[in-house]
Amino acid sequence: MKMDRKYWLHRVIVCFLMMIIIIQIPMHAYADEKRMVAIGTNAEYAPFEYLDSNGDLTGFDIDLMNAIAKEAGFEVKWVDLPFDSLLGSIEAGDIEAIAASIAPTEERAKSVDFSDVYYSGSQSLVYRTDEKYTDFSDIKGRTIAVLEGSQSDMIASGENTDYGVVEDATVKRFKNASSAIMELKNKGADAVIIDTIIAEIFCKQTDGIEAVPVKGTEEDTVFCIEKGNTEITELINDGLAKVKENGTYDTLYAKYFSGEESEQIIATQEEDGFIGTLKFIFVQDNRWKYYVNGLGTTLIVSLLSVLIGVILGLLVAIIRINAEHRGKRTIASSVAAFYVDVIRGTPSVLQLMIVYFAVFHSRLGYIAAVASFGINSGAYVSEVIRGGIQAVDKGQSEAGRSLGLSYNDTMRFVVIPQAVKNILPAMGNEFIQLIKETSILGYVGIVDLTKAASYVSSRTYQMFIPLLAAGIVYYLIVKVLSILLGKFERRLKESD
Predict the structure, then answer these.
(1) What are the phi and psi torsion angles at 79 (to 5°)?
(2) Distances (CA, A) of 204 to 80, 126, 134, 183
(3) Where are the domains of the chain?
(4) Which CATH topology does 288-494 take?
(5) Is residue 306 a contact partner of residue 329, using CB atoms and an 8 Å limit?
(6) Gyration radius (Cα) of the chain, Å
């Protein structure tokens, strides 16, 4: 017995030591792996952050942060988000830092920490050439266009009075700077408040507008960091210091603000006329690729979402129909009814943002999008299926039961085959509707067809033609599907 105790004690000790070794192996294996840091940005603000001709994220902020990461020994995971979602994402813990040309303010300091200053600039007033403004007092009571959530938004709305006060202004907020400029050109706004360097780019690119820097608006630009995350703050500050010391910062500054890249950013169309404009918008820098990639995203997300919607909708419909047949509500049927009620009663864009930011925490964007639209589609599909089954004359069910068929067999062999003719056309319409609904994917930084048009607009500073092109593509897709659906419906009628 004593030997047995020693034997088992020995085995326990050996096993314990082996466990320690096994645990230590992966620790040593991953010891040399670099820290991964999720950093948010908004790729619609050239030359600071934008997409190049290949659809890759680039810009001064992007290259600078990548250089900082290399020097500081961490890896960057870029997350492209709408500008007004960045601070919310960092507060939720979805990202750890922001690189999006943000100025440090007392209000922002309540929710994030700041890195050392990496860029200094000023605010400018952009106006039509038939007007002339020099400072904020000149635009008292006027309509001002700004980039939503930006420093200019705070100035125009009176949230930040450090640089002066814009009195009694009507503020129009836009998701990107090019939309604000277009509002100015269309006389929907009297002026635009925007970063000086961006204003200069717009004025070089766009006829009929001028810009003037506003005195006293000089401001610093920093990286925003998750509140209390001293580790990331130290890494970024240390890397920034090294980048400035070794000359990389100066190289990047010259590249984007006075070098070849700067010239490409502000390049104008080489040919006049409508054909020249089309070449400039779509051909130059292969911008048509945005549309191709965006179309692929739209179709894939729509198709996968409708498949999930059909499966979920069928399940929900069966649960509710069975409960109605028995004349007794169950927990499952109550949950199903509540699900349909909530989904049909809330906007799909709100559902998408909740799923992406709250459930998936700004990760796995495409999966989050498919899940959100699939859940949304499932509610409508369930009602389509339930309505199609209920549309079958009750006499058909009674006839089946009179022939000795069970309830399930009656549904399987009599009711459902007839209901399919009512259900399938409606399912086709649901797919068509889903394709159009995916246009909101840009709210979570996914480049669908609509977002692609927005990117092209932000690079060409043209709004109408890029958006019109996206609209034409949507129309052609829907038209083709409608024709196919019409032929399918006629075949169903012929089979009666």
Answers:
(1) -125, 110
(2) 27, 12, 19, 17
(3) 35-118+221-262, 123-217, 288-494
(4) MetI-like fold (1.10.3720)
(5) no
(6) 29
Cα torsion 488, 489, 495, 496 to 10°: value is 170
Hey, what amino acid is at 156? A
The CATH fold assigned to 35-118+221-262 is D-Maltodextrin-Binding Protein; domain 2 (3.40.190)
pLDDT in tens, the chain (496 residues): 444 544 444 554 444 445 444 334 443 334 446 788 999 998 877 788 887 767 788 889 999 999 999 999 999 999 888 887 888 888 888 899 999 888 888 888 889 999 999 988 888 899 998 888 888 888 888 899 888 877 788 888 777 666 667 788 888 888 777 778 888 888 889 999 888 888 887 787 777 888 888 888 888 899 999 999 999 999 999 999 999 999 999 999 888 887 555 555 555 555 566 777 777 778 777 788 888 888 999 999 999 998 998 889 888 888 888 787 777 778 888 888 898 889 988 999 899 888 888 888 777 788 889 999 999 998 888 888 887 777 666 766 666 666 666 666 666 666 677 767 777 777 888 888 888 888 888 887 788 888 888 878 777 767 788 889 999 999 999 899 888 888 877 776 666 5
Find out whether the peptide bond into 466 is cis, omega within 30 degrees of 0: no
CA–centroid distance for 383 within its chain: 29
Structural fold of domain 123-217: D-Maltodextrin-Binding Protein; domain 2 (3.40.190)
- CA-based diameter of the chain, in Å? 103
Instruction: Compute the distance between CA of residue 105 and CA of residue 220 in angstroms, rounded to an integer.
Output: 10
DSSP state at residue 49: B
Q: How far apart are CA 388 and CA 383, in angstroms?
A: 8
Q: Give the sign of the dihedral formed by CA 318, CA 324, CA 329, CA 335.
A: positive
* Residue 162, both tokens: 């450090």
Global confidence as pTM: 0.67
Q: Annotate 101-170 with DSSP letters as a single string.
A: EE---HHHHTTEEE----EEE-EEEEEETT----SGGGGTT-EEEEETTSHHHHHHHTS--TT---TTPE
User: Is 93 in contact with 227 (CB distance < 8 Å)?
Assistant: no
In one-letter notation, the amino acid at residue 382 is: S
- Rounded to an integer, what distance in angstroms lies between the CA atom of residue 219 and that of residue 445? 28
Chain centroid to CA 191: how far?
28
